Amino acid sequence: MEVMGKVKTRFAPSPTGALHIGGVRTALYAYLLARGSNGIFALRIEDTDQERLVPGSAEDIIETLKWLGLEFDEGPIYQSKRLKIYQKYAQELIDKGLAYKKDGAIWFKTVKDGETSWTDLAGNKTITIANSLHDDFVMIKSDGYPTYNFAVVIDDHLMEITHIIRGVEFISSTPKHIMLFNAFSWQLPQFVHLPLILGSDRSKLSKRHGAQAASEFRKDGFLPEAILNFIVLLGWTSPSGREIMTLPEMIDEFSSKDLNLANPIFDMTKLEWMNGEYIRKTQISELKSQIFQYTRELSSGVLTPKDHPTEEEIEKIVPLIRERIKKLSDFIPLTDFIFEKPEYDIKIFQKININSDLLEQKKILEKILEILENFKKPWQAKVFEAAFRKLAQDENIKAGDMFLLIRVAVSGQAVTPPLFESIKIIGEDEVLDRIRGVVNTYPNF
Predict the structure, then answer these.
(1) Reduced to 3 states, what is the DSSP secondary structure of residue 243?
(2) Using N-to-C axis directions, what is the helix angle for 21-36 and 57-68, rounded to 10°?
(3) Distance from C-alpha of 144 to C-alpha of 238, rounded to nearest angstrom
């Protein structure tokens, strides 16, 4: 059945917890369908199940949608504020003889004969379910609140929703909804039921597969553009075959006819790869701002206010680490040694292939310190490299191991941004102070 008029979609989550990946996909597809048709995208908060409400969930949903850039044109509409509306339409069905009161609740009389069919736009397939499978159901509970099956139909009609996009788990309820639409002689919307997202082992997606609330992905340092790009491909294939797509490009290409019926697999490795691709494509000035904001707003428990790097400090470091990080959160463990003296662990020094005798290794550290103390300031990269390549040769040590020893003495870790560039940001005096401290306390840090 073709829907006339302006396309209007809605995202209608229940505030029973933070917004998860499956919900984000539903919201994204509804958003894309509306935007691609110059239509309207609405947000409705389905908060009628009072026992399952989680404080702060609605706020999390709204904030996450805004962070992702999925701006809604209408709403949020809260069902809990529309109780009189549901009562009115329930009474209308009672008056028509299509509903009745029992045990303090209002029940709908389902059609028992025949079957209910509709064309689902996901796969453009006809779905038929026998009406005998559906018993009468409660529309208004004894506490005065509507059930999902009743409120969803009333609101979808009153909001003039033309396309209902939701998960495949709602297929079994769709005949009840169609019966209600027919009971009121209302025009049916079009239905789009999305396949389940599965984990890597093809079981139902859960936290053990890396799935978590969208706000947690934000705290982990994922970019909203990467999240949307990854999620749009969980059930849809771009006609152009592109994998990396901006939101405007998604809007231009998205169509329900290209939805896949197979259950997509949530691949955390691919998400991290994609996020890294977006980081590398981001202008240094913008990435600097994103990292600066991240370290202040989302790294609670990792950095204290006094440890926060300035925008100027971050701008110096971004060119060194942009090719090395997959998430904004990678910036902190990779660069924290630049902003404060590291803690040293003798085990890291012992892993370097420079003489297993700790006293011998300490002597090499003393020679490194002596060379650095005699360098003319500001230190020059060519002089630095030549001096320590010569020391490595004199001591019969691989050059790579020599520079690794210096890296660990300066940073306390074996993996860092480029060594000399990091040293220049830290400052020569601070570097000398750190290596003196290592020499004086080695091996008992």
Answers:
(1) coil
(2) 50
(3) 45
Q: Give the gyration radius of the chain's Cα atoms.
A: 30
* Token pair 């660990």 in the structure block, residue: 408
CA 361 to each of CA 49, 138, 397, 427, 435: distance values in angstroms, whole numbers, following the listed order: 67, 78, 11, 24, 13
Q: What is the pTM of this model?
A: 0.89
Which domains can be identified in the chain, with CATH numbers?
8-79+196-258 (3.40.50.620), 82-194 (3.40.50.620), 282-339 (1.10.8), 346-441 (1.10.10.350)
At position 66, the amino acid (one-letter code) is K
| Angle ∠(415,416,417) on CA atoms, nearest 5 | 140
**Tens of each residue's pLDDT in the chain, 445 residues:** 334 469 999 999 999 999 999 999 999 999 999 999 999 999 999 999 989 999 999 999 999 999 999 999 999 999 999 999 999 999 999 999 999 999 999 999 999 999 999 999 999 999 999 999 999 999 999 999 999 999 999 999 999 999 999 999 999 999 999 999 999 999 999 999 999 999 888 888 876 766 789 999 999 999 999 999 999 999 999 999 999 999 999 999 999 999 999 999 999 999 999 999 999 999 999 999 999 999 888 655 444 444 578 888 899 999 999 999 999 999 989 999 998 899 999 999 988 877 656 778 899 999 999 999 999 999 999 999 999 999 999 999 999 999 999 999 999 999 999 999 999 999 999 999 999 999 999 988 8
Q: What is the largest CA-CA distance in the chain?
A: 100
Distance separating alpha carbons of residues 61 and 16, to the nearest angstrom:
10
Q: Give the integer Cα–Cα distance in Å for 209 and 411.
A: 33
**Residue from 207, 281, 351, 390 carrying the catalytic annotation:** 207
Structure tokens at 33: 């369908």
Helices (H), 264-330: 268-281, 284-297, 311-321
The tokens 């209007």 sit on which residue?
8
Q: Is 336 helix (H, G, I), strand (E, B) or coil?
A: helix
Tokens of 225: 């553009």
Total H helices, total E strands in the chain: 18, 10
Active-site annotation holds for 207 = yes
Distance CA 304, CA 307 (A): 5
Pick from 140, 214, 174, 189: nearest CA to 10: 189
